[in-house]
Amino acid sequence: MVRVREMTEADIEAVSGIRVTGWQTAYAGVVPQPYLDAMTVEDDARQRRTWFTPSRGQVLDLVAVDDGAGPVGWASLGRYREEEPGDVSGELRGELYALYVRPDVIGTGVGRDLLQEVHRHAAARRFDSMLLWVLRDNPRARRFYETAGYTADGAARSDLYGEVELTEVRYRRAL
């Protein structure tokens, strides 16, 4: 049985393992392989430790925990990080910064359970909507978010991964 709870410092190594293997699995053939091969759990955990405590209160990290196997999924949310020029709506936007599950539990409902908890916590923070960025060339993730009620809103941005520029598209969901 999987339950979702707030992440603790003791979960950092497991979360880093979920994130690194998640990237290496989900983005194989999309993100340059040398970039993926250079990712390590140790480096990710070291970086995660430096910001974990200072970000408390601003960023909420959740873990899906299988009682027999420890954390099997991780999600991170907070306020939307990018201002939109000319926005006077007064809408309070949240952002799903990340959601990953261990590759061996993809398709079991762990991601869906995590996302439901993200929405519950976002509503408790009084966010009017949630936004997220997803690689344009990641159809599995795009279908996952579309099934959960997110729609692409036309915004796009590009980032460099190694020497390759990849496009991310933004999705939005009202709460």
Report the helical percentage.
Answer: 25-40%
Shape: globular
CATH architecture of the domain at 2-78 and 92-130: 3-Layer(aba) Sandwich
Based on the structure, what is the oligomeric state of the protein chains? single chain
The chain-level structural class is alpha+beta
Task: Identify low-pLDDT runs.
Answer: none
Look at the structure and give the mean pLDDT.
Answer: 92
Q: Strand fraction band?
A: 25-35%
What's the CATH class of the domain at 2-78 and 92-130, please? Alpha Beta
- Number of distinct beta strands: 7
CATH overall fold name of the domain at 2-78 and 92-130? Aminopeptidase
Rg calculated over all Cα atoms? 16 Å
Strand order of the largest sheet: 1-2-3-4-5-7-6
Task: Report on the biggest sheet.
Answer: 7 strands, mixed
CATH homolog superfamily of the domain at 2-78 and 92-130: Gcn5-related N-acetyltransferase (GNAT)
How many helical elements?
5
What is the H-and-E element order?
EHHHEEEHEHEE
Keywords:
175 residues; alpha+beta; Aminopeptidase; 7-stranded mixed sheet; 5 helices; globular
